[in-house]
Design a protein that fits this description.
The complex is a heterodimer of chains A (419) and B (169). Chain A is of the alpha/beta class and 419 residues long. Chain A has 15 helices and 18 strands. The termini of chain A are far apart. The chains are: A alpha/beta (419), B alpha/beta (169).
Chain lengths: 419, 169
C-alpha cells in the first residue's frame, strides 16, 4: 500500500475512512475562527433558520481587523458580535482587551492551534496553524455560517506539494526570505488547491515562529493549507495550554505520493523583497537597494512575533529611523514580552511609533495609511494595489531585518550591511 | 434548469486579479450586497469605470488565478449584484471558487479563455455544456461546467438554500 500525505492522513482520520487525493470528504472542524467578520456571518447564520450554533465550544471570535473601532460601521459590527456571543453562549471570545491581538497569533498563543486538528477560519491566512501540524484553511462567510449551523464542512482531499529545505540561514536572512523566494519561483497560483508540506533539516532547525511565517503565506501561492512537522518544538510550544485533548501528532509517510516536489538550500538565499503589486514579484535586495522609502511597517500575522521584534531591535539598537516606522506587536502577550525585554524602549529610542496589537495598516483600515506616490516596506503578507489604503502607493514585502535596516537608511537596505 | 444559454458583452481582465482589485478592502465594512457593485474593480487599472458602465448581462472574462487573496465574499457579491451572470477564467483561486459556488454564482474554468476575447466582444456561453463562443470573432472553446456536489449546491441557489432543502427532505 502506498504511503499517505499529511492531508490524506488528517482528512482520513476525521472522515473515519481511508482517503486519497481527489476524494470529497465531510468532516467536523475542531475550531472555527472568525474575526470582525463574525457580524455578517451571524446575519447569514440567521438566514439558515436554525436558532443555535452546533457547538459554541468549537467557535472562536477574535477582534483584530479594526480595533479599537475606527468608524461607526466597525463599531456596529463589533456590537453585533458581542450580542451574538451572549445569545449563543460562545466561551472563546477575544474582545478589545489585553488578552487579544491578531487572530492567528492569538489562536497559536492560546493553544487552539494543535497537531492533527481540522481547523477553519473566515480569513485566508488561517493556513498559519499548519506550523503546529494542524490542517487549517480559510473559508468564506456563507460557508462559515453553514459550518456553525451543521458542524460539518466538505473538502476535496488536496494533492500535495513537498518542499524540502536544507542548509542554514546566512546572517541577515530570515524565513520570510525563503517563502518570498518560493512564491517568486512558483508564482501566485503555483500551489493552487494544494496542501503544501515543508520537510527537511532546515525546517526542523527553525523556531515555530519562523515556521509560522512560512505557513502563513501558503495562501499567497494559492495553497489550501501549508504544514510543518509536529516535532518536539511544537510539543514544547503547546505544553500546558492545549484547548482540547482531541489533537494527535500526524505526519506524512516517507513514501507518500506528491503532485510536485521542490527543494531549497537556505545557504543560497539572500535578503529580498516582493515588489508591487503581487506577492510573487520577487527581487533580491540588490535590485532595489538605494531606492527611497517613506514608511516602514513591522507587524502583522506574518511577522509580528517576539522573535521578529528581537531581530528588528538588533538592527535598530542605538540607531535612528529616518522614515515613519510603525511597530505593531502581533498580540498583547508579544507586546508585554517585548516590554520586559526592553525592545519597546529600543524602538522608541530609535524614533518608531508603537500601536496597539491588531492588523493595523496591513489591509488599509487605519494606523499607517499611505499617501499617493508613497513607498512602504512592510513585513506583512500582501502588497496588492491599494492594500494599504491608496491605489497610487507602493508596498514592498520583506523580512523584519530588511524592514529595520531600510527604516534607518530611508531607502531599501541590505540588513547584512548593518548587522 | 433554467435557460442555460447566456449572451453578453465581454469585460476582459488579466492574470492574478486579486480580491483588492475586484473589491477593495476600504469598503469591507459594507455588509449590504446590493451596495457592493458600486465599488467593483475600482482599483483595477483601466477598468475604473466598470461599476458605472457595466450593464446587467455583461460577462467578466479573466486569466489565471482570478480572485486570489482574501476570503471576502464581497468580491463575489459585487459582480453578482451588478447583474454579471457568469465569470469565465483560465482558472480561479480556491477560496473565490468556493465562495462563488456557496452563493450560487456561476463560474466556469476555461483555460485559454482570456486570450480569446477583447473588451466589448459578444459572448455566448452554454452553462450546461460549457461551450463558449466569441460571436464577434467566430471562435469557440469548451469550459469545465461545475459537477458533483458543487453542481447540487449551485442548482439549489447556494449553500444556505442547499442546507434548507436538505433539512426539509
Amino acid at each position: 500500500m502506498m504511503g499517505k500525505t499529511f492531508a490524506e492522513k488528517v482528512l482520513g482520520k476525521h472522515a473515519k475512512k481511508d482517503v486519497v487525493a481527489g476524494e470529497v470528504v465531510t468532516v467536523e472542524p475542531h475550531f472555527c475562527m472568525s474575526h470582525d467578520n463574525a457580524a455578517p456571518i451571524a446575519r447569514n447564520f440567521k438566514k439558515i433558520g436554525v436558532s443555535k450554533v452546533w457547538d459554541p465550544g468549537h467557535i472562536v471570535f477574535i477582534l483584530d481587523h479594526a480595533i479599537p473601532a475606527p468608524s461607526d460601521k466597525h463599531a456596529i459590527n463589533h456590537y453585533e458580535i458581542r450580542e451574538f456571543v451572549q445569545e449563543q453562549g460562545i466561551p472563546n471570545f477575544y474582545d478589545v482587551t489585553s488578552k487579544g491581538g491578531v487572530c492567528h497569533q492569538v489562536m497559536c498563543d492560546e493553544g487552539f492551534a494543535l497537531p492533527g486538528l481540522v481547523m477553519v477560519g473566515s480569513d485566508s491566512h488561517t493556513c498559519t496553524y499548519g506550523a503546529f501540524g494542524a490542517f487549517s484553511t480559510g473559508i468564506g462567510r456563507t460557508e462559515m455560517a453553514a459550518t456553525w449551523a451543521t458542524g460539518n464542512i466538505w473538502f476535496k482531499v488536496p494533492e500535495s506539494m513537498k518542499i524540502t529545505v536544507t542548509g542554514t540561514l546566512p546572517k541577515g536572512v530570515a524565513s520570510k526570505d525563503l517563502i518570498l523566494k518560493i512564491i517568486g519561483d512558483i508564482k501566485a497560483d503555483g500551489a493552487d488547491y494544494m496542501s503544501v508540506e515543508f520537510h527537511g533539516p532546515a525546517i526542523e532547525a527553525m523556531s515555530v515562529a519562523e515556521r509560522m511565517t512560512l505557513t502563513n503565506m501558503g495562501i499567497e501561492m494559492g495553497a489550501k493549507n501549508a504544514v510543518c512537522p509536529p516535532d518536539a518544538k511544537v510539543m514544547a510550544a503547546i505544553e500546558g495550554k492545549q484547548k482540547t485533548d482531541a489533537w494527535e501528532a500526524l505526519w506524512a509517510d516517507e513514501d507518500a505520493v506528491y503532485a510536485q516536489e521542490l527543494s531549497y538550500d537556505l545557504g543560497d538565499l539572500v535578503p529580498c523583497v516582493a515588489k508591487p503589486h503581487t506577492v510573487d514579484n520577487y527581487a533580491p535586495i540588490d535590485e532595489v537597494k538605494g531606492q527611497k522609502i517613506h514608511q516602514a511597517f513591522l507587524g502583522s500575522c506574518t511577522n509580528g512575533r517576539i522573535e521578529d521584534l528581537r531581530g528588528a531591535a538588533e538592527v535598530l539598537k542605538g540607531k535612528t529611523v529616518v522614515v515613519r516606522t510603525v511597530v505593531i506587536p502581533a498580540s498583547w502577550k508579544v507586546y508585554r514580552q517585548a516590554m520586559k525585554e526592553g525592545l519597546l524602549d529600543i524602538f522608541l529610542d530609535a524614533g518608531c511609533v508603537i500601536c496597539n496589537p491588531g492588523c493595523g495598516p496591513c489591509m488599509g483600515n487605519h494606523e499607517g495609511i499611505l499617501a499617493p506616490g508613497e513607498v512602504c516596506i512592510s513585513t506583512a503578507n500582501r502588497n496588492f494595489k491599494g492594500r494599504m489604503g491608496n491605489k497610487e502607493s507602493f508596498i514592498y514585502l520583506a523580512s523584519p531585518l530588511t524592514v529595520a535596516a531600510s527604516a534607518i537608511k530611508g531607502e531599501f537596505a541590505d540588513p547584512r550591511e548593518v548587522l | 434548469m433554467k435557460d442555460t444559454i447566456l449572451r453578453g458583452r465581454a469585460w476582459v481582465f488579466g492574470d492574478d486579479v486579486d480580491t483588492d482589485l475586484i473589491y477593495h478592502n476600504k469598503y469591507l465594512a459594507e455588509t449590504d450586497p446590493k451596495e457592493m457593485p458600486q465599488y467593483s474593480f475600482e482599483y483595477y487599472p483601466g477598468k475604473e469605470n466598470f461599476a458605472k458602465e457595466v450593464k446587467p448581462g455583461d460577462i467578466v472574462v479573466a486569466g489565471r488565478n482570478f480572485g486570489c487573496g482574501s476570503s471576502r465574499e464581497h468580491a463575489v457579491y459585487c459582480l453578482k449584484y451588478a447583474g454579471v451572470p457568469v465569470v469565465l477564467a483560465d482558472s480561479f483561486a480556491r477560496i473565490y471558487y468556493r465562495n462563488a459556488v456557496n452563493n450560487g454564482y456561476p463560474v466556469l474554468f476555461a483555460p485559454g479563455v482570456a486570450k480569446m476575447f477583447s473588451d466589448g466582444d459578444e459572448i455566448e456561453v452554454d452553462m450546461e455544456s460549457g461551450t463558449i463562443k466569441n460571436l464577434t470573432t467566430g471562435k469557440s472553446m469548451h469550459g469545465d461546467a461545475v459537477a458533483d456536489l458543487e453542481k447540487d449546491i449551485m442548482a439549489a441557489g447556494g449553500l444556505i438554500e442547499y442546507l434548507k432543502s436538505k433539512a426539509t427532505e
